[in-house]
Specification:
The complex is a heterodimer of chains A (about 325) and B (about 775). Chain A is of the alpha/beta class. Chain A has a domain of about 100 residues: Helicase, Ruva Protein, domain 3 (Orthogonal Bundle), CATH 1.10.8. Helices cover about 45% and strands about 15% of the residues of chain A. In chain A, the strands form five sheets. In chain A, strands 3-6-9-1-10 form a five-stranded parallel beta sheet. Chain A has a two-stranded parallel ribbon with strand order 2-11. A two-stranded antiparallel ribbon of chain A has the order 4-5. The longest helix of chain A has 19 residues. Chain B is of the alpha+beta class and about 775 residues long. Chain B folds into three domains: about 240 residues, no CATH class; about 325 residues, no CATH class; about 120 residues, no CATH class. In chain B, about 45% of the residues lie in helices and about 10% in strands. Chain B contains 25 helices and 18 strands. Chain B has a six-stranded antiparallel beta sheet, with no helix packed on it. The two termini of chain B are about 25 Å apart. The chains are: A alpha/beta (about 325), B alpha+beta (about 775). Chains A and B meet through helix 11, helix 13 and helix 15 of A and helix 22 and helix 23 of B.
């Protein structure tokens, strides 16, 4: 039975208020657990949770040493589900990710040995240090949530989330992610340097012990699946859908961009907005949810024009500009 | 950047499917109103313009209606193009100026450009029109100046009506320009505006209300109340019954209001008609001119019988006298007792003009008469005359300057006259004083005791503030012309009782006007008499003047020592050619106004040192009532303009109040959106910024952080924000209570107004900027 494509299920039935009420405590537990390790980054944590509930994949991009891997490991540890970590290196092969068929001498048949992607949470550390060939091996896994090896298709676990970290492409020994793969990440976040106070607290508390060691799972896979199902039922008004489309369309005609947002980006933005609404305890999406997620969801998919690059513009700036200028459609349209 | 940034998106042309919560459809764009409101407003102005018809004598519809159409098309086109509101009246005013220039300034650049020189010409023309309106009694012959004035009036009315009814969507106030149009005939016509004028105005106004009701219902539909909000069905096209109710109410008002309002005739309920009791028509072959009775009969008879013709060298022939009545016996005027024994025959020599001052400028003119059907013992003659050529059996009465025969009549007679046309100056007339030694003075004194008391009192009232006899005569004449109504449908002869009735009813015809003015002059010790004869008649293409029975007339002549007998014209009637019943040059309204102005500039000592004559004039209602017609029209116009200005000034505030009520009277989504729009307008009216790109939550944050820190207002904003968010974006609508919305809006508005100083608060209330924005 094929795994359903996330977010495509119609949300005709309004969300059950009781289930929506159950979602908040569960999410709160996960958020609190992560915050015990990752301090001073509530927005990044919320974005990560949003992606989790929206059945997306998260790309964490920043310079080394700011806690990218720590965030991924913490989120994975907070969930009582299977976790696999892949350290991407230039010599990593696609088979290491997807798995390989091995000939069993005893049974005289080929047996499939699952790769690292066969887990609920897959940590791809420094994903842009692998070769494009290996990076592309993740394409089918991330989009279709299945792996095809030697003509046989193997479904991945549910929930399935890839949390990848990468260094900025200006760093040595990195390969830029292909556009197709960037488009498959629902959101990209940057950790940023901690504030002075947070860094002082980190030095005081984390110098002797690793807080990750004390972290215990607060939710299991089944609970996460239930949360995801609740998010799917969040209502999206027609005007909000129109707003999402307007935003995406605006990126395609913007003079500073040579590649705008794809329809997949539109879908990701809407699904992420539904998750944000659920995290806020609402049964409906607001345009504010869309605006809040526009930069994390859209910016990493856009390619700047040469002129914009020379002018020092960034995709995030373009998206922020669009959020300010694209009018929210009136109600009832 | 492309159109996406303005919120447009691909596929917006596809109709939005109905939401699961049965959200009412959004209002269509303004442009979808089409030309319907513009056409209705233009039709209303066209109907209103028709009420000017009784004021004008001649074809006049062309350019005024062309201006109306041009102004309406301009406004309609700009509405279709969704031009900014302030551009509409500006463009319409420009178009109005262009049409006026094209119509009345033939030498304008390109024939229509309103250059400064062209506008100067136009201004001069309009001044001529104002002067004509002030000079003539309705119906006024159409001349270019007057036509330009009418065209400008129609254009301005069309502009104001369009702005109010179409641009600002306030058809109720749009009735103001129509009423202003109605005020013109109401003030200028002796009988007030005709009854049908009120009906025309009402039809136009009701039409605009009708169109506005239809527009509103077509946009929103009529909610069927039994279904409630969630399942409300909308029924476009249900505009008929409100319209019918409005029309019925207006028709009822049209019937009830006129009899109750001064100046509106009650003729619609069966009043005076033009045909009254007419004496048996005489044989037209033998028309006899009895001084008073036959004249009235001639005026009342339906047929217009030509009596005699004449040729003359005069450009403006004088009135033609036949009989003079000098004696008032206490009951009626008695024609002079003509005696052939005391009167020389005409063949005896040249006639000396009677009582014409030696210093008075004069011109001569020749007249050649031929009587066709006139059979009268009196010769119709201009006055005074130098010489008459007539058969020997005609006598000349030295006292009155009339010719008569005791043996024959004028039937088939020809006679020639060398007439004198006196042209006394204003100074000569002003300098004339009553000669106490005049024998006629004593006769007047004898008759004075027999004059009706009311007439004497009224004459004295009118004379106040007018120091000279000439000015007093002018005051009497213009009081009669402006306060009385002309009608031949009056029974009886002008005896004393009839004069009292005339003063009471203020309705009569020339005979009573002339008799009354002559008596009032005598009450002021001015020697007077009544002349009976004919007005100059009608000139044909060959230069022959035709005088008919309808030209029979009576007028007073007043004696001014040093000048002579001077004709006045107290009868407020003008015939079709404008020359038949004409006010003499020395008796026009401007003359009286100039004299009064001169007195104001040089106040003369009076009996009461504490008060000047002008103060008495201004404060005396009876004297004030004698003001010229032009002043009345001007005052009425000014009052109308003032009322219009007040109405226009109240427009923005009224628009806001009306919008607020409409918004808060809605239900469900419309109420929530209306409440949110009301919050937006409140912010704008109180000087706050508002971005349409903001989400409700962003707008709320901006308001709370930038404008109001008042906790109750902040909480009210949060409630309004939650309300609009839920109605816009939530899967199921939550009931919205209009009272809660209104209370929250009041809280926010009060907090916003507290931030402002008194001047800003006043402006926010009466000139809210949001009122000028399209919804």
């Amino acid at each position: 039975m094929p795994h359903p494509v996330p977010g495509t299920a119609p949300s005709a039935a309004p969300p059950d208020p009781a289930r929506l009420a159950d979602l908040l405590p569960a999410v709160g537990r996960i958020r609190s657990a992560v915050q015990t390790v990752i301090e001073g980054k509530p927005q990044v944590i919320d974005t990560a949770l949003t992606v989790l509930l929206a059945e997306g994949h998260l790309l964490i991009e920043d310079v080394p040493g700011v806690g990218k891997t720590q965030l991924a490991k913490t989120l994975a540890r907070a969930l009582d589900c299977s976790v696999r970590r892949i350290q991407f290196t230039p010599d990593l092969l696609p088979g290491d990710l997807t798995g390989v068929s091995v000939f069993n001498q005893e049974s005289r048949a080929f047996e499939f040995r699952p790769g690292a992607v066969f887990a609920n949470v897959v940590l791809g550390d420094e994903i842009n240090r692998a070769s494009p060939k290996t990076q592309s091996a993740l394409l089918e896994c991330m989009e279709e949530r299945q792996v095809t090896v030697d003509g046989r298709t193997h479904e991945l676990a549910s929930p399935f989330m890839v949390i990848a970290t990468q260094n900025p492409i200006e760093m040595e020994g990195t390969y830029p992610l292909p556009e197709a793969q960037r488009d498959r990440f629902m959101a990209r976040v940057s950790m940023g340097y901690p504030s002075a106070a947070a860094e002082m607290e980190m030095l005081a508390e984390h110098a002797a012990t690793n807080p990750l060691d004390d972290l215990t799972p607060v939710a299991d896979a089944a609970e996460v699946v239930k949360l995801v199902e609740v998010v799917r039922t969040i209502h999206v008004a027609r005007s909000v859908r129109a707003y999402v489309v307007d935003l995406a369309a605006a990126t395609r005609d913007h003079h500073d961009l040579r590649l705008g947002a794809s329809p997949r980006a539109t879908l990701h933005l809407l699904r992420a907005a539904k998750a944000t609404a659920a995290l806020d305890g609402r049964d409906h999406v607001l345009p504010d949810d869309v605006q809040q997620l526009a930069v994390p969801v859209l910016a990493h998919r856009l390619l700047l024009s040469t002129d914009a690059q020379i002018a020092g513009r960034t995709p995030a700036q373009v998206v922020e500009e669009l959020v300010r200028t694209v009018r929210v459609p009136p109600a009832g349209m | 950047m492309t159109t996406q940034l303005t919120g447009l998106r691909p596929g917006t042309g596809t109709p939005a499917p109905a939401r699961s919560d049965a959200t009412p459809p959004a209002a269509p764009e303004r442009g979808s109103d089409g030309w319907w409101p513009t056409a209705v407003a233009a039709a209303a102005v066209a109907l209103a313009a028709l009420v000017l018809a009784p004021l004008l004598d001649g074809p006049w519809l062309g350019w005024p209606f062309a201006t109306l159409v041009a102004v309406a098309l301009t406004g309609g086109a700009l509405a279709q193009l969704r031009a900014p509101l302030f551009l509409v009246p500006i463009a319409q005013a420009l178009v109005c100026a262009v049409v006026l220039t094209a119509a009345y300034v033939p030498d304008a650049p390109l024939g229509f450009l309103p250059s400064p020189a062209a506008l100067d010409t136009l201004r001069t023309l309009l001044q001529d029109g104002v002067a004509a309106a002030n000079t003539y009694v309705a119906p006024v012959p159409v001349e270019p100046g007057l036509l330009a004035l009418v065209t400008l009036g129609v254009g301005v009315c069309a502009l104001c009506t369009h702005v109010l009814a179409v641009t600002l969507r306030m058809p109720v106030l749009a009735g103001a320009p129509l009423v202003a149009m109605y005020a013109v005939p109401a003030a200028a016509l002796p009988d007030g505006a005709p009854w049908w004028a009120f009906v025309l105005i009402s039809i136009g106004w009701v039409g605009m209300l009708f169109a506005d009701t239809r527009r509103q219902v077509d946009h929103w539909g009529r909610v069927v109340p039994r279904a409630g909000y969630a399942t409300a069905r909308l029924r476009p096209g249900g505009w008929l019954w409100p319209g019918i109710r409005l029309a019925a109410l207006a028709a009822l008002l049209a019937l009830v209001v006129p009899p109750l309002v001064p100046g509106l005739t009650d003729a619609v309920l069966g009043g005076r008609g033009s045909s009254g009791a007419v004496d048996a028509a005489p044989d037209p072959q033998t028309v006899a001119l009895d001084p008073f009775v036959s004249m009235r009969r001639d005026l009342q008879q339906g047929r217009d019988v030509e009596l005699f013709t004449y040729r003359t060298t005069s450009d403006s022939p004088a009135y033609l006298r036949a009989v003079v009545a000098e004696t008032f016996d206490g009951e009626k005027w008695i024609p002079h007792a003509y005696s052939a024994d005391d009167s020389p025959v005409l063949s005896q020599g040249v006639i000396t003009p009677v009582s014409l001052g030696a210093d008075v400028a004069r011109r001569t003119a020749d007249y050649q008469f031929f009587a066709t059907r006139l059979a009268s013992p009196y010769l119709p003659l201009p006055y005074p005359v130098d010489r008459i050529v007539a058969p020997d059996d005609w006598h000349w009465d030295l006292a009155t300057g009339t010719a008569f025969s005791v043996q024959t009549t004028t039937k088939g007679l020809s006679w020639a006259v060398d007439a004198v046309e006196p042209a006394p100056t204003l100074a000569q007339l002003e300098a004339s004083r009553i000669n106490r030694s005049d024998t006629r003075e004593r006769g007047n004194q004898q008759a004075l005791a027999q004059l009706p008391t009311d007439l004497v009192d009224q004459a004295k009232i009118l004379a106040e503030g007018h120091p000279t006899p000439y000015e007093q005569a002018l005051a009497i004449q213009w009081w009669l012309r402006t306060e009385f109504t002309y009608s031949v449908d009056v029974k009886g002869d002008p005896t004393g009782d009839q004069i009292e009735q005339f003063l009471r009813d203020r309705v009569g015809y020339c005979q009573q006007f002339a008799a009354t003015m002559a008596l009032m002059a005598r009450a002021l010790n001015i020697t007077s008499r009544v002349a009976v004869g004919f007005t100059p008649g009608t000139r044909d293409a060959s230069g022959v003047w035709h005088v008919s029975s309808q030209d029979a007339h009576a007028w007073p002549e007043l004696l001014f020592p040093g000048v002579g007998w001077v004709r006045f014209e107290p009868t407020p009637r003008a015939s079709t050619d404008g020359g038949n019943v004409a006010v003499p040059r020395w008796a026009r309204a401007q003359t009286l106004a100039e004299l009064e102005a001169r007195h104001r500039a040089q106040p003369e000592p009076t009996d009461d040192p504490a008060r000047t004559p002008d103060e008495r004039v201004d404060t005396d209602p009876a004297t004030a009532a004698a003001e010229p017609l032009g002043d009345r029209v001007r005052r009425t116009t000014l009052l109308g303009l003032l009322a219009l200005a007040v109405a226009l000034a109240a427009v923005p505030g009224t628009v806001r109040v009306r919008r607020r009520r409409t918004r808060l009277a809605a239900q469900g989504l419309a109420l929530a959106e209306g409440g949110w729009a009301e919050l937006r307008d409140t912010v704008r009216d109180t000087g706050g910024g508002w971005s349409d790109a903001d989400t409700p939550r962003q707008a709320a944050r901006r308001l709370k952080s930038a404008y109001w820190v008042d906790p109750p207002a902040s909480a009210a904003i949060d409630r309004l924000t939650a309300m609009v968010e839920r109605t816009r974006y939530a899967p199921t609508g939550r009931p919205v209570a209009a009272d809660d919305v209104a209370r929250d809006l009041r809280t926010v508005r009060a907090a916003a107004l507290r931030r402002l100083d008194a001047r800003q608060r006043w402006r926010a209330r009466w000139f809210p900027s949001s009122a000028l924005r399209r919804e």
